[in-house]
Design a protein that fits this description.
This protein is an all-alpha fold. Helix content is 83%, strand content 0%.
């Protein structure tokens, strides 16, 4: 039991450091762009980064959790493992080709000046062309780090992610300072060198195109569940957040919508931190075939420790919420500190729900996961609409807390009723 606690602590601290460094990368890159660019150009860069994110999602099919779980499930059967890798890599390749073809067509048919004012269309087209290998490199980083996580090589996993974050920060800082590339091209190419490095590290652990080609197997069927479980939240989440933003804006004013957006960003940072760490701790372990008693003996202590750490984090943020708002946002958002407590309560429940949701992802319980995800998003949207009418600005935070509490309870019930045993026997 003591060794398990030590292992949990090491993995949590290690993955926490990687997650923190990745968050630092996002902060530094945005800060550099804000310092060097005018507000108009900064908005254009944000628009371009959103498009890149969409391209990464569609070209990778949101298979990150699948790369972790399937690598962990098959790591003791080398031939089967290579077949799974081959199937996943081919699906990603086909999706990338389709995504890039659409991007090229849009590049030369869409009036780019509508989306990128103050930037010459020629520079935008050049950046889009640079973004294609940039998106592919980002997918390589995601795939290699996920595979290494699934194989249990946590040191290599940490090296890939930490070097990628550091390199991207240095890349943006260097080219902004020297002005040798347009700002959009800098953003588009920041992952290319890191992607090459990630491939080198992964090849030392046995994951490379050379190894994948050694098998005639091409196993694709398990990947479709992970694709659905990744893509549906990817589509639903921005739709629901847009609905919430519009609801607050139309009922309480767009200044209130901006303050809510600031609260959500702080909340999202906390939950993203825990979700990234839990993905490292839970996915590789629960993916293995086990009995119900084996699962609970493994998962229960992880769940309890996670909820305790989440409680400590939420308590610290609660008592330091005024300072938190000042650091993360600005004085214009000072009023947000009064409404954060309800959001933090929702964050606490969300951490537990996500831990249980990862179990469903690892076990490929696609129908249960998607039903839970769709219902929870509907509760969040509907609750926001109703509570804004009843409780004004407290409404979206109340809806968030209620939705995550209900999701936690429902997830616990679903997981407790799962039939355990080898995946193939279900």
């Amino acid at each position: 039991m003591k060794s398990d606690s030590v292992h949990f602590g090491k993995v949590f601290l290690g993955s926490g450091m990687v997650t923190f460094l990745n968050a630092l990368r996002v902060f530094v890159v945005n800060k550099l762009l804000a310092v060097y660019l005018s507000p108009t150009v900064f908005a254009c860069v944000g628009q371009f980064m959103n498009f890149m994110t969409m391209g990464q999602a569609t070209s990778s099919l949101a298979l990150q959790n699948g790369w972790v779980s399937l690598s962990a499930q098959n790591k003791n059967n080398l031939e089967q493992l290579r077949g799974v890798w081959r199937g996943g890599f081919r699906l990603t390749t086909f999706a990338s080709i389709g995504t890039f073809a659409v991007a090229l067509v849009l590049c030369f048919t869409v009036p780019l000046e509508t989306f990128f004012p103050e930037i010459h269309p020629l520079w935008v087209k050049t950046a889009i062309l640079f973004a294609l290998p940039g998106v592919f490199a980002t997918n390589i980083i995601t795939i290699t780090s996920s595979v290494i996580n699934g194989l249990g090589h946590y040191r290599r996993w940490a090296i890939i992610n930490m070097v990628a974050s550091l390199w991207q920060m240095l890349w943006v800082a260097f080219f902004l300072y020297t002005e040798r590339l347009s700002v959009l091209s800098i953003v588009a190419t920041q992952s290319i060198v890191a992607g090459i490095f990630a491939l080198q590290i992964a090849s030392r652990a046995g994951f490379s195109l050379k190894e994948i080609r050694k098998t005639a197997l091409d196993i694709r069927s398990p990947w479709f569940s992970y694709a659905l479980m990744g893509i549906v939240p990817m589509v639903l989440t921005p739709v629901v957040l847009t609905f919430m933003r519009v609801t607050v804006g139309e009922n309480l004013g767009w200044n209130a919508a901006g303050i809510w957006q600031g609260i959500w960003k702080i909340s999202d940072f906390l939950t993203a931190f825990f979700s990234a760490i839990l993905g490292v701790i839970i996915l590789p372990k629960v993916s293995s075939a086990m009995t119900k008693s084996e699962f609970w003996s493994l998962f229960r202590p992880i769940f309890v420790k996670t909820m305790m750490l989440a409680f400590v984090a939420v308590a610290i943020l609660y008592f330091g919420r005024s300072l938190l708002v000042a650091v993360m946002l600005s004085s214009s958002y000072a009023g947000a500190a009064d409404y954060i407590p309800l959001q933090l309560l929702g964050d606490f429940f969300r951490v537990g729900g996500w831990a249980l949701g990862l179990v469903l992802i690892a076990r490929r319980e696609t129908k249960k996961f998607l039903t839970l995800e769709i219902c929870s998003q509907c509760v969040l949207a509907g609750g926001t609409y109703i509570f804004v009418k009843l409780y004004e600005f407290n409404g979206p935070m109340m809806a968030y807390a209620v939705e995550n509490f209900l999701t936690l309870v429902a997830s616990l019930i679903i997981v407790s009723r799962l039939k355990w045993g080898p995946l193939g026997d279900r």
